[in-house]
Amino acid sequence: MSKPDAPASQSWPQAGHRLSRRQFALAAGGAVLTVAIPLGAQTQSPPSPPGSAPAAPARPPVDRAPGSFIRIGADGTVTFLLPTCEMGQGIHTAQAMILAEELGADWTRVRTAMPDQVTPDYRLPMGQQRSVGSFGVRFWHDPLRRAAAQTRELLTLAAAGRLSVPPGSLAAEDGHIVHAATGRRVPFGDLVQAASTLPVPQNPVLRPAEQRKLTGKTMRRLDTPDKVTGRALYAVDMKAPGMLHGAVRLSPVFRAEVESMDPASVQGMPGVVAVVAVPGGAVVVARGWWQAKQAADKLVIRFKATPNDRIGTPELEQRMRAALDSGVLPAALQRGDMDAAFRAPHQVVEADYAVPLLAHACMEPINCMAQARPDRLDLWTGTQAQDILLRDCGAAGGYRPEQVYFHNAYLGGGFGRKTHAEAAIQAMLASRAVGGRPVKVLWSRADDMQQGQYRQTMMCRMRAALDADGRIQGLRVRVAGPQMGRDNGIPLTNGVADGMSLTGITDMQYQIPNMLVDHAVVPMPMALSPWRSIANSFTGFFVEAFINECAAAAGKDPLEFRRQHLQGRPRMLAVLDRAAQSAGWGSPAPQGVARGIAVVESYGSTVAQVVEARLRDGHVKVEKVHVAIDCGRAINPGQVAAQMSGGVVDAMSVALRAKITVKDGRAEQSSFGDYQILRMGEEPEVVTHIVEIGSPLGGVGEPCVPPLAPALAAAASALSGRQVRRLPLADSGLA
Amino acid sequence: MSTQLQINGRRLRVDAAAETPLLWVLRDELGMTGTKYGCGVGLCGACTVHVGNDPARACITPVGALDRQQVRTIEGLGQDRIGRALQAAWIANDVPQCGYCQCGQLMSAAVLLRTTPVPSDKDITETMAGNICRCGTYDRIRAAIHEAARALSV
How far is CA A520 from the centre of its chain? Predict the structure, then answer.
């Protein structure tokens, strides 16, 4: 139930009105009318790790109660309860478009909200409610559409009874059930009560493509009006009666534990209410955050020594370089006969690549407000991973999943960072320590940047055997670095391959008959986290930069070289050709401009990019990026374009300058002065082409990132005459 | 200590230590959460407000320095023509993605249009480079500023 005075696009159900998935709920006025509905056996697909290939389209439909996603008030207001968080990707608008179109809702009156509890209806096939893997459209499209069709049929049946006409003579449009023959129109709201007594249709008929009114058209985002007035509420903006504020004091050295602390050192400071021990440090609770922060900085606290107290980036890189040279390792992928491929190659191409640790640097720093009562935990948060908070707060606080209520607000950026429970645990423990008052814990920018959960640093050695025609006959890939997936509880594929570290290599689209991939594991002291496009953020660079080098070694045009190795891969070829055509590939570039090209398949979509750059004062200046994406069908094309241009900027930030380095066991960077995000004036012109060739639905938010770095590296190499094999380009003096 | 503030035309009295940054007075004392915390050291621009006619980073502006000064925040941006034109252009161009930085972006853009009614791309870059957008909406911010400038000049 949404509060009547809540902003239209951000209202959530009042905690306490929990509807089980076996109920179909239609809201009439203030009351919730529910009716139990028979459901078939719950069919859940087996778990698959994020970043893995999209689920097969032929999977059986998962029974999800339509009332989990759709509430219709007696006043006709349609509220969509959406499973995916809104962190900038425009997903609430896209999911609402899918629902509204199938339902026949009045677009001008729809509201979006998020459910306050986790039920199976909101979970991905991996078995968790998460906003990861660019699943927002590609997975949720079908279940949402089915729920909307079920609801439409219920309303239609109710209208048929009321009008005494056959259901087949009725249509749902603009929030009404319409009888075309007589022109009679019944508002959805008037049908709610009757519809809620009917059994939910189990085989709803989906609207045919010619009835599409919303999807495929650029629709303005539902959240924009509130985001230009300050009304939009993020987790950090949450308020609750009696709320207190918490600032953290955490170990600067990765994973160090508290040895001792002296709460008396801050007692009596203005506003200070409590000092609460939490894993790895303390939360200082005060009346205002500024007071809490002043005290947290003054708190006398000592941390235990760790084996990593002296470690730094040079040692970590040395370990990775040494690991590249290790002997035989178990193969993560083995194909064909590598010995034969390398026995008498026409040419061998070899290169080592390296990428650094990255922070997510969400504009909204990590935060969470919690109210921890004996039998109930409320979390006001912006999380990408409700199920991880359920698990970790459950373990730390003893709450059962049904005792945990989420008030999931907008996220001021996510990028994978907001999949962890640190702030929720801290806020929960702090709330407990102050008798169950709500406590909002907010990390400072330095906390946010220095407390780990980084994109992993990796190195890669590529070695290819080319035949006389310039074809890659054998490819040897060794990556060296941590196992991010394993660190995050994802089982190793075949007991060896860390999917979150090798995706993009083991499933690369190039047709190479003989291949061997392994992973020389180098543990890291800091916590690692998914980062927009996960492994593809670096494997895209390794593979595509190397493909460009192989093309050069073979004396071939990099577009033509790719085409040669991508026969039978129509989605790769379609985007390559479109981006190349957009850039006038093959024609001479303007004076001083170099072009680079790359193409990556990830999260069910293919994206090709052509970067046009020039040197200015010795630094690479990206002027234009041509992007072509095949994401199946673009639900909201304007937002697909926004993700492409924004993704280019994001990827440019980390390709050019941003990186986390380690000294004495801690991160050296602390804010936007030393972790440099692209600023206004550096943004290139981005031209986006959406290629629709009938492919299955693919992701959008992440697939735009991987091709940028290798395409940019190719342009930078051409401009500087030095092969760029290391990110960021600033390490080579080029940015 | 008590400070008299004028925020969006409203006279308010707040009790906060003089060195408390305006940002935390707005957010925690006055409940005005449109002004965002991004870095706390004036590097990202998410907390941009106006003090008099000038832009200010609320995270490094002590409230004690603002006695009897006119402060405008995003909640009051729509009180004048420039603010409304910018908000309309932001909506027409669907500028925000996550939106967290956009209140600060709008406040910086309003100062720009007040001093430079028809800004060039260079003017926009110079004024707006202090406001980081992690979603990379710079192209649409630029387009929306031009559009607002056009709308205001007719």
Answer: 27
The secondary structure of residue A253, as a DSSP letter, is S
pLDDT digits (tens, 9 = 90+) for A671-725: 999 999 999 999 999 999 999 999 999 999 999 999 999 999 999 999 999 999 9
Q: Between B38, B90, B91, which is nearest A445 by CB? A: B38
Q: Which amino acid is at A86?
A: E
CATH code linked to domain A23-227:
3.30.365.10
**Which residues neighbour A581 within 8 Å (Cβ) at sequence distance 6 or greater?**
none
Whether the bond into A47 is cis, omega within 30 of 0: no
- Span A103-127, pLDDT tens digits: 999 999 999 999 999 999 999 998 9
In whole angstroms, give the CA distance from residue A577 to residue A204: 40
Q: What is the architecture, at CATH level 2, of domain B2-76?
A: Roll (3.10)
Q: Going by CATH, does the domain composed of A235-306+366-442 fall within 3.30.365.10?
A: yes
- Torsion angle (degrees, nearest 10) of CA A266, A270, A271, A274: 10
The first and second tokens of residue B50, run together, are: 């106006």
**Contact between chains at B36 and A412 (C-beta distance less than 8 A):** yes
Within 8 A by CB and 6+ apart from A398, the residues are none
Question: Could you state, in order of their start, the residue ranges of all structural domains in chain A?
Answer: 23-227, 235-306+366-442, 314-357+454-732
Quote the minimal CA–CA distance from B57 to chain A in Å: 15
Q: How confident is the model at residue A32 (pLDDT cuts 50, 70, 90)?
A: very low
Give the ipTM. 0.98
Q: Tell me if the domain spanning B80-153 has CATH number 1.10.150.120.
A: yes
Q: Do the chains contact at A230 and B134, CB–CB below 8 Å?
A: no
| Pair A393, A403: CB distance under 8 Å | no
Q: How far is A333 from chain B (nearest CA, A)?
A: 35
Match domain A314-357+454-732 to its CATH number in 3.40.190.10, 3.30.365.10, 3.30.1380.20, 1.20.272.10: 3.30.365.10
Which residues of chain B make contact with A224, given a CB cutoff of 8 A?
A: 90-91, 94-96, 99
Q: What single DSSP character describes residue A195?
A: H
Q: pLDDT tens digits, residue range A658-676?
A: 999 999 999 999 999 999 9
Report the greatest alpha carbon distance in chain B: 47
Nearest chain A residue to B96 by CA distance is: A224
Residue of chain B minimizing CA distance to A652 = B136
Q: Report residue A362 as tokens.
A: 């969400």
Q: Which residue has the tokens 């290599």?
A: A505
Chain B positions touching A231 (Cβ under 8 A) are: 34
CA distance A418 to chain B (A): 13
Cβ contacts (< 8 Å) between B132 and chain A: which residues?
363, 672, 677, 679
- Chain B residue with minimum CA distance to A360: B134
The Cα–Cα gap between A515 and A506 comes to 9
Nearest to A228 among B20, B40, B102 (CB): B102
Chain B residues close to A678, C-beta within 8 Å: 136, 138
Q: What is the Cα Rg of chain A in Å?
A: 27
| CB–CB contacts below 8 A, A to B | 177
B136/A363 CB distance under 8 A? no
d(CA A561, CA B82): 53
Chain A residues touching B143 at Cβ < 8 A: none
Q: What are phi and psi of A171, to 5 degrees?
A: -135, 155
Q: Is the pTM of this model over 0.90?
A: yes
Which residues on B lie below 8 Å from A444 (Cβ)? 40
- Domain limits, chain B: 2-76, 80-153
Instruction: Report CA torsion sign: A227, A229, A231, A236.
Output: positive
Same fold, A23-227 and A314-357+454-732: yes
* Mean pLDDT of the A394-407 span: 97
Phi/psi at A302 (5° precision): -125, 145
Return the beta strands (E) in A138-179 as ranges. 170-173, 176-179
